[in-house]
Amino acid sequence: MKLKEVDRTAMQAWSPAQNHPIYLATGTSAQQLDATFSTSASLEIFELDLSDPSLDMKSCATFSSSHRYHKLIWGPHKMDSKGNASGVLIAGGENGNIILYDPSKIIAGDKEVVIAQNDKHTGPVRALDVNIFQTNLVASGANESEIYIWDLNNFATPMTPGAKTQPPEDISCVAWNRQVQHILASASPSGRATVWDLRKNEPIIKVSDHSNRMHCSGLAWHPDVATQMVLASEDDRLPVVQMWDLRFASSPLRVLENHARGILAIAWSMADPELLLSCGKDAKILCSNPNTGEVLYELPTNTQWCFDIQWCPRNPAVLSAASFDGRISVYSIMGGSADGLRQKQVDKLSSSFGNLDPFGTGQPLPPLQIPQQTAQHNIVLPLKKPPKWTRRPVGASFSFGGKLVTFENGRAQAQQGAEPPHHVFVSQVVTEEEFLQRSDQLQQVLRSQGFVSFCQKKIEASQTEFEKNVWSFLKVNFEDDSRGKYLELLGYRKEDLGKKIAVALSKVDGPNACIKEGKQESEFLPSAGGTFNISISGDIDGLITQALLTGNFESAVDLCLHDNRMADAIILAIAGGQELLAQTQKKYFAKSRSKITRLITAVVMKNWKEIVESCDLKNWREALAAVLTYAKPDEFSTLCDLLGTRLESEGDSLLQTQACLCYICAGNVEKLVACWTKAQDGSSPLSLQDLIEKVVILRKAVQLTQAMDTNTVGVLLAEKMSQYANLLAAQGSIAAALAFLPENTNQPNIAQLRDRLCKAQGQPIPGQESSKTPYDRQQLPKGRPGPVAGHTQMPRVPAQQCYPHGENPPPPGFIMHGNVNPNAATAQLPTSPGHMHTQVPPYPQPQRPQNGWNDPPALNRVSKKKKMPENFMPPVPITSPIMNPLGDPQSQMLPQQPSVPAPLSSQASFPQPHLAGGQTFHGIQQPLGQPGMPPSFSKPNIEGAPGAPIGNTIQHVQSLPTEKITKKPIPDEHLILKTTFEDLIQRCLSSATDPQTKRKLDDASKRLEFLYDKLREQTLSPAIISGLHNIARSIESRNYPEGLTIHTHIVSTSNFSETSAFMPVLKVVLTQANKLGV
Amino acid sequence: MHDAQMDYYGTRLATCSSDRSVKIFDVRNGGQILIADLRGHEGPVWQVAWAHPMYGNILASCSYDRKVIIWKEENGTWEKTHEHTGHDSSVNSVCWAPHDYGLILACGSSDGAISLLTYTGEGQWEVKKINNAHTIGCNAVSWAPAVVPGSLIDQPSGQKPNYIKKFASGGCDNLIKLWKEEEDGQWKEEQKLEAHSDWVRDVAWAPSIGLPTSTIASCSQDGRVFIWTCDDTSGNTWSPKLLHKFNDVVWHVSWSITANILAVSGGDNKVTLWKESVDGQWVCISDVNKGQGSVSASVTEGQQNEQ
């Protein structure tokens, strides 16, 4: 699909990959004249703005130049990784000149944009290339076989790659090798290509097919393979692209004959070596896979030839092509609809040509005929194969229960076309160790009913006074005389109080003792004996006397009250009967203003509500104490509640939290939750745990003491409990989550969560399946087809094994859990070759799952061995098949997969069996050629994170291989390495005594697999290989110190990344061998 | 392999791969039983997405072959129930809308368009298309969780809540775009989020945990992962925070169900887990380097590093 276009007849250069935004520089072409036949020249920079849907490109700068250009490139010289500088534009001019421009200055509009200029060349400079390893090095080519190497840091004097080739010819292309920095290739229209080694300063090989028809117009190195390059021919008689491999330079490796006429330019994608662009005089732009010759894409172009074509380095799907009709077009190779854009283009053409007379002929142009353009295929199909950059190499997605599903594609694309092995890992992500631990403790307490000791532990561990109080209050619930103990907690011990009162009374005045709680009854002054005088005078005393004498208690009391003789009044009232007493009490309380009156009022009147409702909140403790002492059981909870509510609504933040204590006394779970939530930050798992612990304990207490049905759960508590269950589930504790989820609630979110948890456990609660699911789910019919029956026969692994965190939080660290059976898919793929495509069996055949590939006992064993992670190391594959081929039906069924049992034995995790077998097996294996691959990459590891990992755990629950696993054999000449090393390890093992050493050796044996892998892939450099052979020889001669010396030499002279996987273990083995003297 | 997704319950695993297949495994109790090998795509299959189980067992897959296929399990057999061929280029991403909206699937394609398939009953799917959503390609789509404006206020019972449907998309124009369904049912671009300097490879809208804040994670070819948050009720002000700059392409981001952990999958086959600390900084809590096995081997509890 065409994205952008610019009406210029120009050479083009994309900004380097580091640069953002993406720019396209254009320099007026020296070879092609545009429609105006103008001879002026300019250098322009456009910005590629893909968020702008129009076809126009935004021009950023124009620089009027005195040169026209044969070649334009944009190098990243002096750019940093952030792309702060914008590199350097290098232009090849008409008269042997090379000009360096500063693009940032061009964009800034500076007048002085030329960095340097040199006209040392003869004739037009048609070839330029920047070395990608040393971006200050630029190669250029011109007439007379001239090739120069320029150092941008020292531009004055160029170097030559060697003596000029004879006879003198024009150089049409130069290209630096993409893998080896000192290799350069040049090509000329005569058809010859020369490869130069700049270290030797001479041509090392000349490539020509001797047809004399190759007129090289393009030259490009393979982006990945150092020895391969393509040459394109401009000659109409031989319009081909030749792929050469310098190792077989007598004839082209492959010839791409996709163009009908000569090819003018080629470009090889750096992002995907299977994409080579070519444009030719047949007006086609093709994208082919040079490794196969297949045409993957034909760009929809107009009928004009293109003379220059370039991939955009930063956006790999974008390319630009310059055509002879004076236009540079920017395309995407990803296809897409061009409807909207095309219409714009038509409109623009119409408007700009309209009735104009561009050629001054005096006649207006006839109306534009553009039906073809609109009717043309509006939909442009994408490449036949997806480009490399669309293939996701790795991905990890979370799923329910804190499981992380990770897949990755094999690191190296297998050269021989075999699909790299694929594995899916299911890991358990645990981030809240402490949370899980505490949750687990809580569950244990619930099971063991050890509430008191749990509360006691909590009290001891409490950090704050308040926390301590809360736990103390909770604990009291489980003890006898809970009210008394509550009082004690509030600071009122009956014995203490008695002592205090005694002390107070023994003093002359006991003015304090603020609340005496009706203990004053002993305070009666002894009325001394003797006679007394009944006065009936007119004063108050007299009147009282008279009233008494007449039995008028009411008046007498009134008189006493009037005279402030309270005690007299009360005494008289008692004599006057219940009614009068009550009245008198009322009148007394109305008159009295003492601090404690209201308390006394409440005590006497039994009006605790009054106290709770109107006491100063600072005295909440006292109020609560009073309630605890006096309140009747039926009103007790209400009163505690009431006090709590007041504290919550009226008190300051400190008092608000104290409300929790009231609610605990009241046994009001719901309010406790509300209050706690208000006071605490409830979002973190641990604070939720804090709450849930209390709530759960309180509920238990209420159940025990008040024998109430507390199964019904309020909205807020339900929400908290489901939050809690969600958290547990997110940490993988499905069973625990289910246990804590409130039962008797119809809240949809809880019902949904329960459904999800049950199903996640893999064992839907019987009977619930159809009726209680929260969704209108269509259930599968009971009568399933045969194959399914196979599933149900599968023994089920108990849930704990699947979710090991449910009951027992794992030890920290990284534990590989059952790599269930890496060859499972391998096993089932070959059983129905070809069937997958043609007949799509909806289920595996019933007997297949019973072939052991999903054998749960294997998982069991693995689970139990989780404390020995080294047992999960992949085994040495070639030696292991011999251990376990018998009794495994697959090995008989699938003779082409002799090593299938290898991973099985790893499953079983027998510590060492594979070591015993020795290497006698590869005689058999060699002809078969496809040893099973152990999941060497399934050994995960946690490394120091960029930050610092905070003691978290990922646990691999299972690993699913879903693709075929194959592995190349170790080349014959290197087998000796494997046999020698393994033999040595065997010898060491047999003489090693302590388990530590044995384990080391065991481990080493596994890790050497990395070496064998490299041998299979033939990726080791010759120097290392020969070094390894030397070590092997010294092992043969039992000269371990020499082996170690060679080892040191290899390590010090080789690339660390190449050897780090196995050299250290090799050293361990050599050292051990030396020590043990085997 | 290009994608692996568990279903709602975590009991079935769907995978898809370059071999054009979509496979479904029963992984209950640590087992692995191949339930179905679905054939129908004619190119590499990029992504799979499970619909909510209230609609039955439904899986969507998208492929380089320009098709989206919706698969359904009927009577124990998986079959193709719908094929969407409305795209002109590779379909890179599929994502089901929150189940509260009904059965709606968003698909992002390399043709730059995003299409929305809505199940209208009786096997019919209605298609809406946003053309030129991302020039030269949409790489990812992700729905916002179902949140009713002012969701804390109780909705009148019996009345269908008035959801505002939104989703995020990321593409080759380096942009993240937020789309909102207008009252007339048309989709409008609501926001453009700009911070990446190269292709946006993935976007992931975080699940709602009942807070008013919306969060989106995005990752890019440029190696950067951003966390975008929006606090205001109008949903218009989004601010990015750089989680980390990786040295390689970051391909995928995935939120945990509780929205507190982000799994980031990058080049080098690396998966890292990130969590926001109390002070708002994102911290790497785990760094899993599988597939390498070379440099520092496994440093496992109880196993000393021999190197």
Automatic annotation (TrEMBL), chain B:
GO MF term set: structural molecule activity
Keyword Transport set for record: yes
Keywords assigned: Lysosome, mRNA transport, Nuclear pore complex, Nucleus, Protein transport, Repeat, Translocation, Transport, WD repeat
Cellular location(s): Lysosome membrane; Nucleus, Nuclear pore complex
Ranges for the WD repeats: 38-81, 193-228
A biological process from GO: mRNA transport
A cellular component annotation (GO) from this entry: COPII vesicle coat
Keyword ATP-binding appears in the UniProt entry: no
Protein's job: Functions as a component of the nuclear pore complex (NPC) and the COPII coat. At the endoplasmic reticulum, SEC13 is involved in the biogenesis of COPII-coated vesicles. Required for the exit of adipsin (CFD/ADN), an adipocyte-secreted protein from the endoplasmic reticulum. As a component of the GATOR2 complex, functions as an activator of the amino acid-sensing branch of the mTORC1 signaling pathway. The GATOR2 complex indirectly activates mTORC1 through the inhibition of the GATOR1 subcomplex. GATOR2 probably acts as an E3 ubiquitin-protein ligase toward GATOR1. In the presence of abundant amino acids, the GATOR2 complex mediates ubiquitination of the NPRL2 core component of the GATOR1 complex, leading to GATOR1 inactivation. In the absence of amino acids, GATOR2 is inhibited, activating the GATOR1 complex.
Family to which this protein belongs: Belongs to the WD repeat SEC13 family.
Subunit structure, interactors included: At the nuclear pore: component of the Y-shaped Nup107-160 subcomplex of the nuclear pore complex (NPC). The Nup107-160 subcomplex includes NUP160, NUP133, NUP107, NUP98, NUP85, NUP43, NUP37, SEH1 and SEC13. At the COPII coat complex: interacts with SEC31A and SEC31B. Interacts with SEC16A. Interacts with SEC16B. Component of the GATOR2 subcomplex, composed of MIOS, SEC13, SEH1L, WDR24 and WDR59. The GATOR2 complex interacts with CASTOR1 and CASTOR2; the interaction is negatively regulated by arginine.
The name this protein goes by in its record: Protein SEC13 homolog
The organism of origin for this protein: Neovison vison (American mink)
